[in-house]
């Protein structure tokens, strides 16, 4: 595939040019931004089993990582502070390393069936406080550390993206079997996947067993 070349004549390179393409921001879109967790934001977080956390390294490299658990897994410590347990993963530690280098993070909370979302921005630190970690245990397993977010901005996000994508509409769910398994896709693009179907099946089963053993 040939590399895409952007025509510089159409590049938007300053905020004045950007804002000139749009109508002025609706006053409610400005007013809705709060600097603490209000009643509805707290209830949204208590109901949410899933969030995405955006972080950035000092060199400008950005990353977005999913976090998921039973509803209420993010602890509301007070109106300005959240705690997110860090569960077992692939040990790349992208988000955690970024937080050490640059504490600014953005959170997007999602609730299944809700088309609106909640956005929270703030600064993060990492902790191994034993009492806090103990309170975040699941199935007898305590997280190794937690991400503490000091909240600076909180606001609800409208439903347009979810309605356009029809994310929760069952008749728009796609058939997972139409693409290869996770392991096969990774191997196809790295070392090469085995051609023997039984060998590939065993690798897929091994991933499922790993999920079962190391989810927490």
TrEMBL record:
It comes from the Bacteria. Residues 38-136 form the Pyridoxamine 5'-phosphate oxidase N-terminal domain. NCBIfam families: PPOX_FMN_DR2398 (TIGR04025). This is Pyridoxamine 5'-phosphate oxidase family protein.
